[in-house]
Amino acid sequence: MGASVPEEAAFAHEVRRGEPILEVRELVKHFPLTKGVVFKKQVGAVKAVDGVSFDLMQGETLGIVGESGCGKSTLAKVLMNLEPASSGSVRYKGEEISRLSGAGLKAVRRNIQMVFQDPYTSLNPRMTVGDIIGEPFEIHPEVAPKGGRRKAVEDLLDVVGLNPEYINRYPHQFSGGQRQRIGIARGLALKPEIIICDEPVSALDVSVQAQVINLLEQLQSEFNLSYMFIAHDLSIVRHISDRVGVMYLGKMVEIGTDAEIYDHATHPYTQALLSAVPVPDPQARESRDRIVLTGDVPSPANPPSGCRFRTRCWKAQERCALEVPPLSSPSWLDGLAVHDSACHFAAEREAEPGGAAGPPETV
Question: What are the residues whose beta carbons fall under 8 Å from the beta carbon of 244, sequence distance 6 or more?
Fold first, then answer.
């Protein structure tokens, strides 16, 4: 216990609202590709996360969107130290946490929790709800005294909208939405400051999705939480997020407020994603301009040189193959278009830099 006290003390100070509570810089996670059976030799690497940088502010929700396989879930696992980072920096309250182990990692995980994607496989079917939600108290007994753990679990069930009398039931006795509420209760057990939500509503019905999203918003206000919210559904991300980051092939290609990203996107990939969002009005659906990307998504084991999106981009030029575009605010834009975008020719769809005509609406 003595060794853990300095680690816990390092994270005890308060971070004011609007200040960064989690700072990620050039985070890299490569999975080695090997050849051979007896004498294995590394012949390459899957670049799942390759130089991602962002800040998570205290009290905000940062949404992360992108195609399947772009590295969103791997990023979440690296932040939680479920997967060790290949390189880069993750700082929580100013302290480096990416290489912690033992007591230091235990102290961090009390304050950074995770809600997993699949409510059917993230809960142990052999444990009761009370044991599942109360398990964190066995690892961090200082949070809830042994005599008061049942009451603490019942309170958590009540907070997430479940009957406290369900404490002795098993996961198979619940619906998908109820199971996800149990997962959220488990994430809240240790009173964390950050919760990483890895597609927490993707396996749920639409009506249940709305209930869970509303619950997350209510809990954020009540417990002063910071969220990193990973999802495919752009409308859900816009509803819950203060800022949105767009990932493509292991890199962050654009990041800004919800208005900047959804109404003033400047990266071609973001514009293509937004143009694919389903529209409920049949007339509007027929008349809107779609950006149809050609070609397949490149392999993360052999990504294109320079800009990784260039093989599918209508703006691609020779410079795009030679230079990696920095994630920065272009100087030639103004208004809400001024936000970080990793494109040499960043512009809103209506106009190119310098006033030239915009790109073709369909590629």
Answer: 62, 63, 64, 65, 237, 238, 255, 256, 257, 258, 261, 262
